[in-house]
Write a structure and sequence with these properties.
- There is one protein chain.
- With 185 residues, this protein is α+β, with helices and mostly antiparallel strands.
- It has one domain.
- 51% of the residues lie in helices and 14% in strands.
- It has 5 helices and 4 strands; from the N terminus they run H-H-E-H-E-E-H-H-E.
- A 4-stranded antiparallel β-sheet has the order 1-4-3-2, sandwiched between helices.
- The N terminus is likely disordered.
- Bound molecules: heme C (HEC).
- Keywords: Signal.
- This is DUF3365 domain-containing protein.
- InterPro entries: Tll0287-like_dom.
- It comes from Pseudobowmanella zhangzhouensis.
């Protein structure tokens, strides 16, 4: 009994000396729920936009909706974004920690291309960070693949003159969701 108590106290101290309310497992579960909502909402918005106004119209929707959905999920100490080694929007460029994780994702996927999803969490106490792979699906190729149509390419070049996010193949690592938590624990 004594050992168990010591273990619990040490565990609490490790994660938060002052208000041990949230542990890493809970933060990870919260992060995964946010990723699921982000992915599902954005995919829905994209499909609707493509069906209603075509791909070129959907580029504008992606430009506005992706950051808007990320902002909606960035509450209560969380910040949510997407990033990649090759970005379309320079605002999505990775920081050092994200770049390292993306390198690790990319190396792991090169060895095991069929891996459905890889996750990474920060090991230091604060802030809590979480990343999860985004693979290139069939519907992504129209705007991120090797055979992007001329009108889509023209619209992309116009809006994103530094676009690096074409040339991906089905199943390639496109990027990652990246979340950070700096709220109370
Ligand atoms: C209609 C065109 C279109 C389609 C289809 C599309 N994207 Fe994008 N994607 C964009 C645009 C435009 C941006 C830049 C958004 C911004 O300005 O933040 C982008 C950005 C991204 C980013 C953020 C990193 C970066 O490059 O700036 C990721 C990750 C991404 N897309 C993944 C996907 C995935 C995965 C799919 C398929 C499920 C997909 N996209 C489908 C147009 C598209």
């Amino acid at each position: 009994m004594k050992t168990v108590l010591v273990g619990l106290v040490a565990g609490g101290l490790l994660f938060c000396p002052y208000a041990p309310a949230t542990n890493t497992a809970q933060l990870k579960a919260d992060a995964q729920a946010k990723v699921q909502t982000f992915a599902k909402t954005l995919k829905g918005e994209l499909l609707t936009a493509i069906n209603q106004g075509g791909l070129v119209n959907a580029i504008d929707v992606c430009n506005l909706k992706a950051p808007a959905i990320a902002a909606q999920l960035s509450t209560d100490g969380w910040s949510v974004k997407r990033t990649a080694l090759r970005v379309r929007n320079p605002a999505n460029a990775p920081d050092d920690w994200e770049r390292n994780v993306l390198d690790y994702f990319s190396a792991t996927m090169a060895k095991q291309p069929a891996t459905p999803s890889i996750q990474a969490t920060s090991v230091d106490a604060a802030p809590f960070r979480y990343m999860q792979t985004i693979k290139t699906g069939q519907m992504c190729l129209a705007c991120h693949g090797s055979n992007v149509s001329a009108d889509v390419q023209a619209a992309l070049t116009k809006r994103y003159p530094q676009d690096q996010a074409t040339g991906f193949k089905l199943g390639d690592l496109r990027g990652a969701f990246s979340l950070q938590y700096e709220g109370p624990r």
